[in-house]
Amino acid sequence: MRCVRALATALAGTRGATLAGARGATAGARGATAGARGATAGARGATAGARGATAGARGATLAGTLGALALWAAPATASTLVIEGAGDGHGVGMSQDGALGYAEHGWSDTQIVAHYYTGTTVGQAPARSVVTVLEGSKVVRVPLERYVRGVVAAEMPASWPLAALEAQAIASRGYALTAHAGGTRFDVYADTRSQVYRGAAAETATSNAAVAATAGQIVLYQGAPVATYYFASSGGMTEDNENSFLGSTPEPWLRAVPDSYETKTSDWKVSVSFATAAARLSGLVRGSFRGIEVLKRGASPRIVAAEVLGSRGDVQVSGPELEARLGLSSAWAYFSVKSGGRVTRELDVSGQTPFAPPTPEAPPASAPAQTPGAASPMGGTSAPEPASIASATGGARAE
After folding, report:
1. Rounded Cα–Cα distance for residues 176 and 133 (Å)
2. Whole-angstrom Cα distance, residue 210 to residue 240?
3. What are the beta bridge partners of residue 336?
4. Which of 64, 103, 338, 385 could serve as 163's disulfide partner, Cβ 3.0–4.6 Å?
């Protein structure tokens, strides 16, 4: 019995040891598994951290890229087109401000006229000439001298020197006789589409005296009356007619000449936002507006051709149309772009050197000869008026 009990005790001990050992091994295995799981969790945590770092780097890169794009795009939105120029009007023929300067420096009316209309003389208009004028919707017939009295007082201040007023009278008279604004219906408009006519209400004693002193006088080229365009201010040089009246035939009496007594008061400067410029140039901008490049200038710095630059391509435009679209005083213009505090001059491939103001001129030794008697039948035709200019005279009364 004792042996059985001893055997039972021994077996129990063996089972206890085996069970304890197994349990210990199991616990050890579980501990190892837990350790492995901990290691796996740590690895996953490290992987998650790496992914977070990568995501952060990508986010930083994207933010930097977007920031760079914003900085690149900002100047186009905030940019300003700066335009500097000179003169007022188309620049063809006689400058009214220039005539004032020449008169103040001792030039006579015929000397002034001869300066602006190359190779011409002064002669007489046909007797009893009449001008047909469109006033509103009504066409009226006005005797030439009465008509000129109503024009000179409207186009030039009566306080200006008599020689300037007389030159204005000669130019206005010839312009009326050679203009055919209304074809066979009428000769001239009563406004800036031709030259301003205000009738007897505008007349002054001084302007009437200038008309009387030049009664019947007009400009002749090779014996025939010719179109005598004029405008407000030249900026220092007039322009060849074909460069302002695009499509017109070059006329020998309408050549560019220096204008010695124009002053700095004819200089001007305007600034418009890119958005405003793009709106004014609607139809000429492809994509986003980027600026203006000058391709060709005339005898003076007036623009003949340019390109409107766009993000999707460039469009060519004439100087007179650019002037009209942007609301400029003349086509004598230079372009720059201002972004922030930086101003950059736009491209100009015209090849023209910077304009140098002309040297003041003394009056000619003698006045040009006048052609006696009545003028020959009127020859020549008025240059076609381009749609891009306000009037044949420059569209503004001289101030």
Report:
1. 9
2. 28
3. 82, 345
4. 103
Residue segments in the chain with a per-residue pLDDT below the cut of 50: 1-77, 373-392, 394-399
Cβ-based neighbour number of residue 80 at 10 Å: 17
pLDDT (tens digit per residue) in 95-139: 999 999 999 999 999 999 999 999 999 999 999 999 999 999 999
